[in-house]
Write a structure and sequence with these properties.
Helix content is 65%, strand content 10%. With 79 residues, the chain is mainly α. The protein has one domain. It has a two-stranded antiparallel sheet. Helix 2 packs across helix 3.
Length: 79
Amino acid sequence: MTSNPAWFEQMYGELNLYGVFIPTLLGLMLLAYALNGALRAWMTRAGLYRWIWHPALFNLATYIAVLGMLFSIMHRMQS
């Protein structure tokens, strides 16, 4: 029998929004989408998209990075 690491056994709860339970990951995804939109608007105004070969792929990668950062921050706050 193997023992799981401590991070494996921790479970995140749901957000209660007036009786409707919303998964934590959905809330993080919406927050990451909003932050990614702000980052995209800033990069467009700064003219940084001129240096990016594939903007759609770059936007997907930044979304995943922002979502991972938010999940990491949430994990550190709960431990």
